């Protein structure tokens, strides 16, 4: 569970006592090597020369001892593509009949999405996406010297697994920190984001897709519902609401809709 949240700045030294170590019983299991791996999330970099772990962005250092993971929770900053991220992008144009250029944020270069990177796509059945169309995709290749590459199909199964064009709905901007928390396993524990669960508990019917690049797509038959979901997300983000405050805010929003 998350235990520490000291504020750190780029270049700070991380107190070694904060770095989670494998439990003694873990070291005795067959998967000891896997369990001993320290996972560094956004905002941290391992310096190979010194072995030090250094923050690259200002924010709160979050340590999850159970999962042996660490990251920096930061509302600001620009999105930097990382392999495995699920993102929401907007098609800018098609190039050469082989790929789409997709915008992920105002501060990054366009990503590349091959026409064949969709479930069941072939030269005859590849999707026709007009400029402005939205896609839910996974980052398959990321290199600081190249444009990131996207895919809308699982390389393991050949299935879309929820990825692909997003039809209808609207997109709301949230911080990168909130986007990451929304993508975590849903939990109503302190420090997590349960606002979407609370909205569903109130009987609102909607679909969402969450992009690690700070985008949330919402679709519903009711415009009021889409607006309510967007307002709830942005309020949670701006005021850093606790789980209890998220519940109270949702109750207030529902009353205001009636």
Average residue-wise pLDDT: 85
Q: What does the main sheet amount to?
A: 6 strands, antiparallel
- The DSSP helix count reads 6
Classified by CATH, the class of the largest domain is Alpha Beta
- Taken together, the total number of domains comes to 3
Order of helices and strands: EEHHEEEEEEEEEEEEHHEEHH
Which stretches are poorly predicted, pLDDT < 50 over at least 5 residues? 25-34
Description:
The radius of gyration is 20 Å and the shape is globular. A hairpin with a 3-residue loop joins strand 15 (about 205-210) and strand 16. The protein is about 20% helix and about 30% strand. The strands form 4 sheets. Strands 8, 9, 10, 11, 12 and 13 form a 6-stranded antiparallel beta sheet that branches. Strands 1, 2, 3, 6 and 7 form a 5-stranded mixed beta sheet that branches. Strands 14-16-15 form a 3-stranded antiparallel beta sheet, covered by helices on one side. Helix 5 packs antiparallel against helix 6. It is of the alpha+beta class. The two termini are about 40 Å apart. It folds into 3 domains: about 1-75, Beta Barrel (OB fold (Dihydrolipoamide Acetyltransferase, E2P)), CATH 2.40.50.100; about 85-165, Nucleic acid-binding proteins (OB fold (Dihydrolipoamide Acetyltransferase, E2P)), CATH 2.40.50; about 170-255, Ribosomal Protein S8, Chain: A, domain 1. This is Ribosomal RNA-processing protein 40. GO terms for molecular function: RNA binding.
Topology:
Layout: E1 2-4, E2 7-8, H1 24-27, H2 32-36, E3 39-40, E4 44-46, E5 53-55, E6 59-64, E7 69-73, E8 86-95, E9 99-103, E10 111-114, E11 134-143, E12 146-151, E13 164-166, E14 170-173, H3 176-183, H4 195-201, E15 207-211, E16 215-219, H5 223-239, H6 243-257
Parallel strand pairs: 3-7
Antiparallel strand pairs: 1-6, 2-6, 4-5, 6-7, 8-9, 8-11, 9-10, 11-12, 11-13, 14-16, 15-16
Helix pairs in contact: 5-6
